[in-house]
Structures are given as structure tokens and as C-alpha cells.
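Readers of this paper often ask what the protein records in our data store actually look like. The remainder of this section carries one protein's record, kept here as part of the documentation.

:::
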Amino acid sequence: MKALSILRVEILKVQKSKILFITVGFFILIPLMMALMMFVSKNPDIAAKLGLFGTKAKMFNENDWTGFGTVIIQSMASVGFIGYGFVTSWVFGREHSDRTFKDMLSLPVSRSLIVYAKMTVAFIWCLMLSAILFLASLLFGLMLDLPGLTNQVAVHFSKMFFMTSVLTLLLNPLIAFLSGYSNGIVAPLGFMIVTLIMANFAGLLGIGPYFPWSIPGLYSVASHDPGLQLHFSSYMILAVTFFIGMAGTLYWWKNADHK
């Protein structure tokens, strides 16, 4: 019962916050921008008039559901990581910015239950954002009347999208740990930017399959080029990163009185 009560409290905190609606808007904006670029890409005359934006719109290899879906999935790996990280850092770091952290420590409940409740809320929130991005992408794709929507393409897009989303979610616990360790959300946000840059460099150096923050992006690309292929060890590295983040977060909260 205590676990459910704590979970309800954490859900209520999210429902009362304006951040929830801001993140929903952000995850709708991503497919909207991709759809706008696809629209420009489908209309070469408009692309020529728009100059640089028109050039960027040519990022789609094919002006159909396959090309649109590929860019949406890749956006999920990069922008999704930032979005998920922000959600997680807010769920764990807001207790410091709202100065309610010491009050939470004094509650007669297990610190582990608090961590599990916060992590569950962050995961549900992120999955909801993924679903919104997915549905918005389908809606905008249909509005553009893109060709090539077959059952095979739809199943492949759905599988790649949600698997990329789940792999990205596994990076969340380290963000939660940093939120506690740094007493806020600034350090985790800086950490996300740095790791995103390093993930790109790791891919260029051919070590991306062994760098946790590169793995969701490489999965979304599904490249067969040497140095870009994921192995079983890649998924094990991601799983280990998840458990290290969870263990670190639990340890920090249990010993927060001594910080």
C-alpha cells in the first residue's frame, strides 16, 4: 500500500506541473518539423525558393513512408534522449529546486520505494511521450499523403521506433543518479549534451557499438557498415549501464543524510 501511495503522490506532482504539457508540445513539434521538411522535399519548387531550409529538407532519401519513418526513428534516438533525460532529471531533481528534499528524507517510508516510484513515473512519462510522437508522426504522414504505406513498412516502422525508444530509456537511471549527486537538474542537462556530442564522435571512431549513448542511435540507423553494427555485447553494455545507474541512484538516496 505504501508503494502505491508514493506512486500516486509522484503522479500527482507531474499532473500538477506545467512541465508535462511543455514536454507533450515538444514531442509533437518534432514530427511536425519533420513533416514540414518532407512537404518541402516533395515540392522542389518550394525547396528552391527556401534556400538553406530547402537544402536541409533534402535529408530524406525517399519522399515516402520509408524515408519519413527513418528520419522519425533517428530523431527518437537523439531528441528523445534529451527529452527523456530532461523528464528524469526533473522528476528526481525538482525536490532540490523546490526545497522539499529534506522533507522527503524525513518521511517514514523506504527510500528505495521513493526511488522506484520516481523511476516508474519517469518511465511512464517517457513512454507516453514516445506514443504521442509515434501517433503524431502517423497523423502528419497521412496528412502529407505519403506513398508506400504497406503492412510491412508499418510493422517495421513500429518495431524500430519503439525498440529505439526502449533502448534510450535504459540510459535514464544515470541521469537520475546525477540529479541527486549534483542536487539539481543543471548538471544532468550538461551531461546529456556532452554525451550526445561524444556519441557522434564514438560513431566516427568506430567504437559506437561499445559506447552506451551511441547504441540507440546506431540501432535506429540499422547500418550494416563495419564499425556501425551492434553486437550482443552492445546490448549487454546498455543493460549494465542501466543497472549501474539504478544501483547508484538507490545508494545515493539511502545515504543522502550524509551528503
